[in-house]
From TrEMBL:
It comes from the Bacteria. It comes from Serinibacter arcticus. Pfam families: DAO. Residues 8-377 form the FAD dependent oxidoreductase domain. GO terms for molecular function: flavin adenine dinucleotide binding; sarcosine oxidase activity. Its cofactor is FAD. This is Sarcosine oxidase.
Length: 410
């Protein structure tokens, strides 16, 4: 029989790393298994930056993002590294009609949210151009609580934390099957040799947490009542900075992340594929992308190639709205989204299998809070943490965490 563990986390992206970190930090025996090599580009957790986007109107997401911020800060103290840059977030397109509920929800929680005119915002952040024209001058919602996650550093800090607290991390281990046992517990069937020379064919666990991203349905869809999860290949890009003053490196690196919603009353926005999200990535320029409109993909048979028409429209967007970049100097990126119909997450337990999935392109910033909730579901510890998962349960009535704005990309 293979190596036993109390809790096994399957999938070592940011959600799995966060869950394993929490379990290990709380003193639990945990083993994290990841199919690919460290830092791989096969899923959704790679890359240097993400927006820490606090611009939600939903109570559930605001609860989760505030808890996530506290845990990011805890991990930063524990690791001795800077994980978030407090650059803020700007939201525009549609003005108060589009962002008013978000403004009110943030202010109700005591979080700063300030309206700016498009001109004032551009004067402050010249690498960005802003949609204007509202009669009130409430064109741009500036949210100082937003930040930029140093994603690659943060993921590594979580894995280091797992091992620092006595957990185990193994890469190059493909889990072929998750088999719930009649008497309780779960058997994991492994595919071939592990990268460290082991030959475990099976592992027995009291509880398994599956955070397998695009592979979730193929791995546990037959044993867990998942909602439909649609996998798409998303295709943002990094744009090199312009050689003009708007591309000044220091100012760009300090600029806020952004969400830009197309205005249905503005004909010139009709080429938008979706909301646009973006942020500065120091050393790489400005990242921008459409949100959740990539082609449906098999995660084991991706092309990794940008769809030409989408890329052309993204270049047009950069030319019109990002004066700080060279729109012709785009470096496309390929990643996956695993999305639910509502874009709400899936956080639940079925028997001895816990699932975290369906993060729909807006999950990264929540990772430590999601990991805390999944760990609580796995162990039964932490009633408040487990309660955070309630809006995201399985089943047709689960989608109660409404109010998610689009534009929450990675």
């Amino acid at each position: 029989m293979g190596q036993d563990a109390v809790a096994v986390v399957v999938g070592g992206g940011v959600m799995g790393a966060a869950t394993a970190w929490r379990l290990a930090r709380d003193g639990h025996d945990v083993l994290l298994l990841e199919r690919f090599a460290p830092g791989h580009h096969e899923g959704a957790s790679h890359g240097e930056t993400r927006n820490f986007n606090t611009a939600y109107a939903s109570t559930h997401y605001l609860d989760l993002v505030q808890r996530a911020r506290a845990l990011w800060d805890e991990l930063a103290r524990e690791s001795g590294q800077v994980l978030l840059d407090d650059v803020g977030l700007v939201n525009h397109g549609g003005g108060e009609r589009r962002w008013g509920a978000t403004h009110d929800a943030l202010r109700a929680r005591g979080l700063a949210a300030e309206w700016l005119s498009a001109r004032a915002a551009h004067d402050r952040w010249p690498a960005l151009r802003f949609a204007g024209g509202t009669s009130t001058g409430r064109d741009v919602l500036w949210v100082p609580s937003g930040a930029r996650v140093r994603a690659a550093v943060a993921w590594r800090a979580m894995l280091d934390g797992v091992e620092r607290h006595g957990g185990r991390v193994r890469h190059g281990v493909r889990v072929r099957a998750v088999v719930p046992l009649d008497g309780g517990g779960v058997r994991l069937e492994l595919d071939g040799e592990t990268s460290d020379g082991g030959t475990d064919a099976t592992i027995l666990a009291r509880t398994v947490v599956v955070t397998a991203g695009a592979w979730t349905t193929s791995l546990v869809g037959a044993v867990v009542p998942l909602p439909e999860l649609v996998v798409t290949q998303e295709q943002p890009a990094h744009f090199a900075l312009a050689t003009t003053g708007a591309g000044d490196v220091a100012r760009v690196d300090a600029m806020p992340g952004f969400n830009h919603a197309p205005d249905p009353e503005r004909p010139l926005d009709r080429y938008f594929r979706s909301d646009v999200y973006g942020m500065a990535t120091p050393g790489e320029g400005i990242k921008a992308g459409w949100h959740g409109v990539g082609p449906v993909a098999d995660p084991d048979a991706r092309t990794y190639r940008p769809e030409p028409d989408q890329l052309a429209d993204l270049r047009r967007y950069a030319r019109e709205w990002l004066p700080g970049v060279d729109a012709d100097a785009a470096v496309p990126i390929s990643c996956t989204y695993t999305s639910t119909a509502s874009t709400d997450f899936v956080l639940d337990r079925h028997g001895d299998v816990v699932v975290g999935a369906g993060f729909s392109g807006h999950g990264y910033k929540f990772a430590p809070a999601v990991g805390e909730a999944l760990a609580a579901l796995a162990t039964g510890d932490g009633v408040a943490s487990a309660r955070a998962a309630l809006p995201f349960r399985f089943g047709p009535g689960r989608a109660v965490a409404t109010g998610t704005p689009t534009g929450f990309g990675t």
